[in-house]
Amino acid sequence: MRVSPGGPSRYTARLLARGVRLSAFSIVDAYPPDSPPRTRYEDVRALAEACEAARLHTLWVAEHHFHPGGVCPSPPVLLAWLGAHTRALRLGVMVSVLPFHAPIELAEQYALLDELLGGRLELGVGSGYIPMEFEGFGIDPEEKRARFDATLATLLAAFRGEEVVAPGGRGRPVRLNVRPRQRPHPPLRVAVQRREAIPFLARAGRSIALVPYATLSGIPELAEVIGEYRRHLPGGVPGHVAAAVHLYAGPRPDRARVHLGRYLESRRQTQSAHYLERVREDPHRADPEFLEEAGFALFGSAPEVAERLRAYARAGVDEILGIFDFGGLPTEEVVGSVRSLGAFPPEPTTA
Question: Which carries the bigger pLDDT value, residue 273 or residue 134?
Answer without folding.
Answer: 134
